[in-house]
Design goal:
Number of strands: 0
CATH architecture: Alpha/alpha barrel
Solcar repeats: 5-97, 136-232
Signal peptide: 1-21
Mean pLDDT: 74
Largest sheet: none
Strand content: under 5%
Structural class: mainly alpha
Order of helices and strands: HHHHHHHHHHH
Pfam family, one: Mito_carr
CATH superfamily: Mitochondrial carrier domain
Protein name: Mitochondrial carrier protein
Low-confidence stretches: 111-126, 172-184, 287-291
Distance between the termini: 21 Å
CATH topology: Mitochondrial carrier fold
CATH class: Mainly Alpha
Shape: globular
Family: Belongs to the mitochondrial carrier (TC 2.A.29) family.
């Protein structure tokens, strides 16, 4: 079993970077949510689609002032930190306790870090057997990660539901979430209690299947693209085995990471949009038949601010999760523990 302090360690290591990155991109995230829940009635005039982003942004500011751009940011930080920390902790439990559960039947062993590093070099040297072992290990770890992510998403989904409605409150006048909650405190309790009273306990789980499907699609796309780029880069290094790590290499790695994240975001975005629309519908509504079946979905509404947010978010996390930052946070954590 992982150390009892492991979950707290993940919380501490992730809280600082997530808080900075999410606070810096909160206006873009709220703009994305408001654009995602726009109905065709809101944007049926194609001549006005180019002004949709600006009008939504202006409405956000004019309704409640500049600080409304950060509406729901605290809840977003709480949810993101808890979700990632719980997912990482569950992955540790699942992978370290029974890794063979996620391996194919024809793989009798799990690659250790040394074996994984050896298989990395085997890609350069053309050793297909070791490369296959590495691929099998990556696939097994991905399975464990997907299961951990699904479990954490189900556990924390009510918080995700509340987050969407808090960000949507006070948005476009035709959004069904306007009357859901008075924003007292963080608004979590108001939103959940109101929704349960009107639509029952299962109301706060509307859109769960779409959220899980979108999360799985994102993770699979991310791993597949990352692995393909890794193999391509290793094969390209065959002729230059003594290449040193410098600014060019770091920039290339950063560009690859951003490209993988942005493409994966585009692939999973329609499912996220469907989830958001289900989350903000009338709590007494009947799911797809009311909100989705009779609408011509604009599934990529809000994709532009989401891509910009993803780029900035990953850039800030890359700085906050650098070796220097992680070493500092570890030292602080060890002092707090001991």
């Amino acid at each position: 079993m992982p150390c009892p302090f492991a979950f707290a360690a993940h919380l501490l290591l992730g809280s600082f970077g997530e808080a900075v990155a999410l606070s810096a991109t909160a206006p873009l995230e709220r703009l994305t949510v408001l654009l995602q829940i726009q109905t065709p009635v809101d944007s049926d005039n194609k001549a006005q689609l180019s002004l949709l982003h600006q009008s939504t942004w202006d409405r956000m500011v004019s309704d409640r002032g500049v600080w409304s751009l950060w509406q729901g940011n605290v809840v977003s930080i709480i949810y993101t930190v808890l979700q990632k920390s719980l997912s990482t902790y569950l992955w540790d439990c699942l992978w370290k306790n029974n890794p063979k559960l996620f391996l194919a039947t024809d793989n009798s062993s799990v690659s250790s870090p040394k074996q994984t590093a050896t298989s990395d070099s085997s890609v350069i040297n053309g050793d297909d057997s070791l490369a296959k072992d590495r691929t099998a290990t990556v696939v097994a770890q991905t399975k464990a990660n997907l299961l951990a992510g699904c479990i954490s998403s189900v556990i924390l989904y009510p918080l995700n539901f509340a987050l969407t409605n808090i960000m949507a409150a006070g948005g476009p006048s035709k959004c069904p979430s306007n009357a859901i909650l008075p924003l007292d405190g963080l608004g979590i309790q108001d939103c959940l209690i109101h929704s349960i009273r009107v639509g029952g306990i299962f109301c706060i789980y509307k859109g769960l299947t779409m959220a899980l499907a979108g999360g799985l699609k994102y993770q699979v796309s991310y791993v597949v693209l990352q692995e393909r780029l890794f193999l391509a880069s290793k094969k390209g290094d065959r002729t230059n085995k003594s290449q040193k790590v410098g600014w060019a290499t770091t920039a290339a790695s950063f560009a690859k990471m951003q490209a993988v994240a942005l493409v994966s975001c585009c692939i999973a975005f329609p499912l996220e949009t469907m989830c958001r629309r289900l989350q903000v519908q009338d709590p007494a509504g009947d799911g797809f038949s009311t909100r989705l079946a009779n609408e011509d979905l604009h599934l990529y509404g809000g994709i532009a601010p989401r891509l910009l947010k993803t780029f900035i978010y990953n850039s800030i996390l890359g700085i906050c999760y650098s070796e220097i930052s992680q070493d500092f946070i570890r030292r602080v954590f060890m002092k707090l523990v001991h």
